[in-house]
Amino acid sequence: MTLWNQLLWGSIYLSACLILEITVLVWCASVLNRMSKRFSKPYRPWQLGLMLLVAIFIILGSHTAQVWIWSSAFVMVGAIEDWNTSVYFSLVTYTTLGYGDVVLGPALRIFAALAAVTGLFGFGISTAFLVSAMGRLFSFNGQRADGGG
Predict the structure, then answer these.
(1) 3-class DSSP state for residue 123?
(2) CA-CA distance, 91 to 8, in Å (whole number)?
(3) Position 140 pLDDT exceeds 80
(4) C-alpha to C-alpha distance for 70 and 86, rounded to whole angstroms
(5) How many helices (H) and strands (E) does the chain have?
(6) What's phi and psi for 16, nearest 5 deg?
């Protein structure tokens, strides 16, 4: 792949993953909103825990889907031939762990780097969402999010 093709296709996959992430987080917010309306306030500890657990599993599903999107991209462009290695490489790249035991040639390095950028964005947005959700849940519960009275 040429440099421009790597940038183009990498940006397309990155954008698709970010659209997925934002869509899932908007949906997650509506799920949490519906759950919070069903529970009486102040929330019991198990209700707070359940709402946070639901949010975490929804976000985990979004990140898993994004790893699979990048994995399919690596298989489709012929960068990696088998799915096992492709999913592994996608996961290691997306999380920016980067063991280095599977690497792509020079013609696809920038394309793969955009998978890491996708993971950085995804984890950053998810973390901000969880911090905000926790703050709202605890403040709606009559407690300040910072632990104060």
Answers:
(1) helix
(2) 21
(3) no
(4) 8
(5) 4, 0
(6) -60, -40
Locate 64 and state its tokens: 């898993």
Environment class of 22 (CB within 10 Å of its CB; exposed 0-12, middle 13-18, buried 19+): middle
Amino acid present at 145:
A
Measured at the CA of 110, the angle between CA 63 and CA 86, to 5 degrees, comes to 50
pLDDT per position as a tens digit, 72-92: 999 999 999 999 999 999 999
Q: Is the pLDDT of residue 139 over 90?
A: no
> What tokens does 143 get?
């407690």
Say which CATH architecture domain 3-38+50-140 belongs to: Orthogonal Bundle (1.10)
Locate tokens 């898993």: which residue? 64
Sequence ranges of the domains in the chain: 3-38+50-140
Q: DSSP for 23-90?
A: HHHHHHHHHHHHHHHHSPSSPPHHHHHHHHHHHHHHHHHHHHHHHHHHHHHHHHTTS-SSHHHHHHHH
